[in-house]
Amino acid sequence: MKFEHIGHSYIQYAENVARMFFRDGTDVLVHTELVRGDDTTRLSASVFHDGRNEMADIIVNNDSASYIKDCKHNLGVCVFNACRAVTGKELPFGHLCGVRPAKIATDILLSGGSEEDAYRHYVDDLRVFPEKARSCVTVASEQIPILSRDYEKRCNLYVSIPFCPSRCNYCSFVSHSIERAGKLVEPYLAILIDEIKSTAKLIQSAGLTNDTVYIGGGTPGILSEEQIKRLCGVINEYFDGYSEFTYEFGRADVATAEKFAALIGAGVTRICVNPQILSDAVLEKNGRRHTVTQFYEAFEAARIAGFDNINCDVIAGLPYSTEELFADTVGRLIKLGADDITMHTLALKRSSGYYEDSLVIDDGLAERSFNAAESLLHEAGYREYYMYRQKRAGGNLENKGYALPGKKSVYNILMMSDAATVISVGAGGITKLVADGGKTIKRVCNYKYPYEYIEKPDKITDNLSFIKEFYKARGGE
Ligand code: SF4
C-alpha cells in the first residue's frame, strides 16, 4: 500500500481507515489532502486501485468551534468513502477504526444521552451496521453501572504468566513455550513474587484499594499445583478485599483436579478454560495441542472443584473450520452451561506463525461464524458486556464477551476502559495509571520477555518508583 498526504498531520488515522479495506501488500495508492482557504477548508481523498480511481471531498468551515476535530473526522470520512467506492465493500463498524467501538456509546450514556441517541449516532453519522450499533449500545448499557463508580482511590492487579505448553499457529502473544523456556519458570516466579509484594506495599502507601485480581497469560494453568498455591498465597497475603479473582487457566491439556482445587482454595472466583473450537481436527491443524475430550474433562473438573463462573474463549474464522462447526461449538458451550463466552475473531497478528506464512483470512467465514454464534448466545440469554477490536481481524469484526446474568467480569470491563488503574506485574505487563476521572492516563511497561524480566530487575524498581511518584503527586505517601 502506498500513501501520499498533503497539508495535514492526520496521517495515522487516514491510513488506519484505508487499511480496513485493503490487506497489507495490496497494490493501492491513497492520496489525501487538506487545503485551507480564507473561509473554508477542503478535505479530500483519492484512491487508485485495480485500474480504478475514486475521489471524495468534504468542506469544513474555518470558524467551526471544533475545527481540528472536524478536519480529522472528515478526512477519515473522505478516505472511507473513496475506499468504499473503489472496493464496493461495506464495513460493519463504518468509519470506526479504534479498538473500543462501544466507548462512544458509553460516553453518550454517561453524559446523559439516551440509548436511542447513541444508536442513531452510530448508524447515521458513523455508518455502523445497525446490528453492530445495537451491540455497542448493549455493551455500554451493561458497563454503565460499573463505570459510573468512583475509581480515584482504587486499582486492579494484573499478573502475567507468559508461558505456554506450546505455541498455537495463530498466536503472537509474547509467550514462551515450556519446551524452550521451562527452566525460566522458577526464577521468573521468584522475581514476580517480589514484584507482587513491592506492589502491594506501594498500593497501601498510596492509599489505594485493590478491586480485582487477574492472572493471565500465556497459559497460567501451566504452573504446578505447588506453584499455583505459592503465587496465589502471596497475592492473598498481600492483597485483601478484592471482589473478583480471575485465573485464566487457558488450555485443557495442563488441567488437573488438584490444580482446580488449589485455585478454589486460594479464593479464585472466576476461571477461564478455553477450547477455541470443539473439533480435534481443527485444533490440531491450528497447532493447538489439546483435544475436545480434554476440554470437557477440564470444564467438568473445574465445576466439581466449585467454580460457578467459568469463561470459555472461542475463535471465529479459524482455518479449516466452518460456520456450522463454530456455531456447533458455541451451542455446545451454551448447553454445557459456560457462564461467560468470549468470542474472538481470528486476526492476522504480526509474529504469529500464520503471519509468517502469509495466511489470507477468510472474511466471509469469520462473518458467518460470528453472526450464527451470536444469535445462539442471544437466544440463550447471554448479553455482550465488553468489546474490542484488533488490527487485521477477519471481516473487520470485533472480539466480544457475553455473560449470563450476574456473571460478567468487572476486570474485563475496567481494563478496556479509561476508568480505573490497572497495575500489571510480570513480563509484558503494561500498567495503566488513571487519575482525575480518566483525564490523566500514564502507562508504564515492564520488559516483554521473561529472560529480560529476570535478568534486569532494575526496570521493575524504576517502574515502581514511577507509580509511587504518580500517587505521591496526588496525596499518597
Ligand atoms: S493461543 Fe493461548 S495457548 Fe496458544 S500460544 Fe497463544 S497464549 Fe499460548
Please give a structural write-up.
With 477 residues, the chain is of the alpha/beta class. It has 3 domains: 2-87, 2-Layer Sandwich (Double Stranded RNA Binding Domain); 103-142, no CATH class; 154-463, pyruvate-formate lyase- activating enzyme. Helices cover 41% and strands 23% of the residues. It contains 17 helices and 17 strands. It has helices at 11-19, 67-87, 103-110, 115-125, 130-147, 178-181, 185-205, 225-238, 257-265, 280-285, 292-305, 323-336, 353-356, 363-379, 410-415, 450-455, 458-472, and strands at residues 2-6, 28-36, 40-49, 52-61, 154-161, 163-164, 176-177, 209-217, 244-250, 270-273, 310-316, 340-345, 383-389, 398-403, 421-425, 430-435, 440-445. The protein has a 9-stranded mixed β-sheet with strand order 13-14-12-11-10-9-8-5-15. β2 and β3 form a beta hairpin. α1 (11-19) packs parallel to α2 (67-87), α9 (257-265) packs parallel to α11 (292-305) and α12 packs parallel to α14 (363-379). The longest helix has 21 residues, at 67-87. The radius of gyration is 23 Å and the shape is globular. The model has no long low-confidence stretch (mean pLDDT 95). The protein binds iron/sulfur cluster. Iron/sulfur cluster (SF4) binds at residues 164, 167-168, 171, 173, 175, 217-219, 250-251.
